[in-house]
């Protein structure tokens, strides 16, 4: 591959999902509203302040307990945030119920898909094998997977109970409309990104399943922190989907770029790939 490869020189794309394909910031911020409104200090928080406060808690929990399922980790982060707000504003008030924390953890199924995502995936699947590597659990991702496939039957994307440890491949759902050739979650890898073991595990599976080495793998993600920076450290090329207004995962945005290309939407990237493919034809 050339020193500065074209997008169409790659064979496999590894996508981050939440933040890149699905609007996790809106999902998280919306889900936090009942809690934030309960305390004087957080009731006046901006969206950015709320998301930054939450993501610091989430990061710490992911490092502390990488084996915790993501929906449970979200519930725990909600609890930790609530405890901190209560200690500051109303230490004698009644704590939230475990049901409320769990409901926040289960809100992943309600997180919206970015409007450009599904059409862009249909373009990109013509040129690449598409892979998901996400900090999520099987059951939660099934809901998002169905949305990304343009379907409503979530059960079709749920891991088989007989062997839940096997990563998702299209043959598990032969009649699905999924654009993906492989789905890997933190439940598969046993770690949360940016831990490099997650990416290394994905590269190993891609090599085994598709015979494609890392030099032909492209990471496409919104989060510099979770995806672009750690993949760069492993020598894997990346594209930054710079979702405008995003707060989480962009801590290193002012540093020297570590990505091959930057687009503001996945739709823009899909257009660039189409243009390259036509020029090569």
TrEMBL record:
**InterPro entries, per the entry:** HAD-like_sf, HAD_sf, S-2-haloacid_dehalogenase
Which UniProt keywords are given for this protein, alphabetically ordered? Answer: Hydrolase
The UniProt record lists the keyword Hydrolase: yes
Q: Which GO terms describe its molecular function?
A: hydrolase activity
Q: Which Pfam families match?
A: Hydrolase
Against Gene3D superfamilies, the record matches this protein to:
1.10.150.750, HAD superfamily/HAD-like
Q: What domain of life does the native source organism fall in?
A: Eukaryota
Put simply, this protein is called HAD-like protein
Q: Which organism is it from?
A: Mycena rosella (Pink bonnet)
Q: What is the lineage of its organism?
A: Eukaryota, Fungi, Dikarya, Basidiomycota, Agaricomycotina
């Amino acid at each position: 591959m050339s020193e500065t490869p074209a997008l169409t020189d790659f064979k496999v794309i590894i996508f981050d999902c939440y933040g890149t394909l699905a609007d996790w910031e809106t999902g998280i911020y919306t889900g936090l509203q009942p809690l934030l409104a309960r305390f004087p200090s957080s009731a006046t928080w901006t969206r950015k302040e709320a998301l930054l406060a939450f993501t610091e808690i989430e990061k710490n929990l992911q490092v502390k307990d990488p084996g915790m399922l993501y929906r449970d980790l979200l519930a725990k982060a909600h609890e930790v945030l609530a405890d901190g707000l209560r200690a500051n504003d109303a230490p004698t008030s009644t704590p939230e119920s475990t049901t409320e924390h769990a409901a926040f953890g289960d809100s992943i199924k309600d997180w919206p898909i970015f409007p450009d995502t599904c059409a862009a995936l249909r373009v990109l699947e013509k040129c690449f094998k598409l892979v998901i590597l996400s900090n999520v659990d099987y059951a939660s991702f099934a809901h998002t997977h169905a949305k990304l496939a343009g379907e409503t039957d979530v059960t079709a994307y749920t891991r088989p109970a007989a062997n839940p440890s096997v990563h998702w491949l299209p043959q598990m759902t032969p009649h699905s409309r999924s654009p993906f050739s492989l789905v890997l979650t933190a439940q598969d890898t046993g770690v949360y990104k940016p831990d490099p073991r997650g990416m290394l595990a994905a590269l190993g599976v891609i090599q085994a399943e598709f015979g494609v080495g890392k030099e032909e793998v492209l990471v496409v993600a919104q989060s510099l922190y979770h995806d672009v920076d750690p993949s760069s450290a492993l020598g894997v090329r990346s594209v930054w989907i710079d979702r405008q207004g995003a707060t989480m995962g962009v801590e290193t945005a002012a540093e020297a770029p570590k990505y091959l290309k930057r687009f503001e939407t996945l739709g823009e990237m899909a257009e660039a790939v189409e243009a390259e493919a036509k020029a090569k034809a």
